[in-house]
């Protein structure tokens, strides 16, 4: 399969690039094909838009005045964990489907990657909330 061609049977305009994704999965690998079908589906796209909206809504509740040991503070921390996991899973599915370099070449994905890495760093190291 040449670079930029799509997989037969899929109606998406998103190309499945030739070569191996993460130096492991070629274009005929069932895991890669599954990830490609998932990340190019309208259901996945709409689900991720709903997750983004829900994440934005919970961010409006965050404030320096919210005590971390309060029920709201605990709920916001748990929601941050859940949203980071969901956005990380989205990134993983897209990287497995497209490969890292083709994934990161799209500016929306590059922004998503920075957001996921920053969220993971903030959760693991702490002190990056200002970022």
UniProtKB/TrEMBL annotation:
The chain crosses the membrane at residues 42-61, 81-103. One of its GO terms (cellular component) is voltage-gated calcium channel complex. Residues 42-125 form the Ion transport domain. Its main location: membrane. Keywords: Calcium, Calcium channel, Calcium transport, Glycoprotein, Ion channel, Ion transport, Membrane, Transmembrane, Transmembrane helix, Transport, Voltage-gated channel. It comes from the Eukaryota. It is found in: Membrane. It is a multi-pass membrane protein. The keyword Metal-binding does not apply. PANTHER family: VOLTAGE-DEPENDENT CALCIUM CHANNEL TYPE A SUBUNIT ALPHA-1. This is Ion transport domain-containing protein. It comes from Haematococcus lacustris (Green alga).
